[in-house]
Amino acid sequence: MLNIALFGPPGAGKGTQSEFLIKKYKLFYISTGDLLRKEIKEETDLGLAAKSIIEEGGLVSDEIIVQIIEKTIKNNPDANGFLFDGFPRTYVQAFILEGLMIKLNTSLNRLISIDVPEEVSVKRLMERGKTSGRSDDTEAVIRNRLKEYHDKTLPVLKYYKEKKIYSSVDGTKSIEEVTQAIEKIIKEELSKNLLNIVLFGYPGSGRGVQGMKLAEKYDLEYVATGHMLDEEIRKKTKIGKQIKSFYENGQLVPDEIVVQLIENKIANKEHSKGFVFKGFPRTLVQSYIFDGIMKKHGLSITKIFELKVPTLELLKRLEDRRKSDNAKPFDSSTKKIISRLEQHEKTTIPVIKRYKQLSSVTKIDGTLSVDEVFEKLCHEIETGYKNLR
After folding, report:
1. Do 258 and 114 belong together in one domain?
2. Domain containing 247 — which CATH number?
3. Is the whole model's pTM more than 0.85, yes or no?
4. Is the domain of 13 the same as that of 100?
């Protein structure tokens, strides 16, 4: 879910940018003024209470406002998120929105402020007044509105700056440039919500099966280096011919080729909900490369799993696989199987240790049935990320 608060002084162009955000990201528009008028028109209990206050010349209380907003959010469960315009307007309302988001098991992803100098706002609104016929577009009224906006808004902006979810864009630029700047912020925010899983485990631990099942369940891209390399060979691409040559000469495929394929996979899936990585990173050097790739594309690792299976069980599974149609190149003999397990011990275990130091690595008992392992993986993912959509 994507929840955005759009700020900007009168004349900043919030209306234009709001239309873009609503259409592009399928957000539900929440304007406290519009919601109040709707409640009053429909003569709801909240609307009648607000109408009575307004008729007496008073300001509608935060208590009524927050109830209307909560009602609106609950009545639109299928929305991809909400765009807040005109709320929170005060420092107290910022805390109110925070509490409301917690209650609804979500959060405000980002506050975006369209910054425009006062003189630019005045000029724009004065120009608008010449054609709109609005009586409030006089210089005195405009400057008073701007003063009120800045007096109330500065504490709100400070609140979100401290929460580190504040972004600003230069509103003096063209509409297209402002839109592009906002879109860049939104893309970076959406990338944080992607589900990116890394699966570790010895050959025979079941990473491939579980990786494909997770990809199918959560609509993720399955990134398996072995599969990608084989696919390039099958398609007889230029890279595929290079890979085949390395295989035939008993050499490892250079990281340069593997990285290129992984980057292509990520870059070509702009609307992906995330990735499952299997078979990469396999070495310490690759772990540094992987971190660099993720950072370059604005991604972060959501969950790291290690499937634990005793050595004797691994040998049994790989011997069984050697006799099946699913045999891998290194399954051709027991000697090669043992060599592959030793290679994993030497090169990949240090990678797992590194990630354990940087973040948590969740161990899963890989001796259980395929369905039981999958159930445990899903439970771990969904326990930590309840807002998966």
Report:
1. no
2. 3.40.50.300
3. no
4. yes
Task: Give residues with Cβ within 8 angstroms of 134, minimum separation 6.
Answer: 128
306 in helix, strand or coil? strand
Predicted confidence (pLDDT) per residue in 262-291, tens digit: 998 888 776 678 999 998 999 999 999 999
Residue 295 has what pLDDT?
A: 84
- Mean pLDDT for all residues in the chain: 89
- Region 166-182: mean pLDDT is 96
Helices 225-235 and 238-248: angle between axes, nearest 10 degrees: 110
The strand pairing partners of 303, in sequence order, are 197
CA distance 46 to 41: 11
Burial class for 291, CB neighbours closer than 10 Å (0-12, 13-18, 19+): middle
- Cis peptide leading into 203, omega within 30 of 0? no
Please state, in angstroms and as integers, the Cα–Cα distance from residue 64 to each residue in 44, 56, 235, 277, following that order: 12, 16, 63, 48
Do 344 and 229 share a structural domain? yes
Secondary structure (3-state) at 303: strand
376 and 239 housed in the same domain: yes
Tell whether omega for the bond before 88 is within 30 degrees of 0, i.e. cis.
yes
Instruction: Give the residue among 19, 9, 17, 18 at the shortest CA–CA distance from 125.
Output: 9
**Domain housing 287:** 195-384
- Which residue from 195, 177, 181, 216 is spatially nearest to 374, judged by alpha carbons? 216
pLDDT at 384: 59
Those residues whose C-beta lies under 8 Å from the C-beta of residue 76, and which sit 6 or more positions away, are 28, 82
- For the segment 175-200, the average pLDDT, to the nearest whole number, is 90
Lowest mean pLDDT among 133-142, 209-218, 342-351, 369-378: 133-142
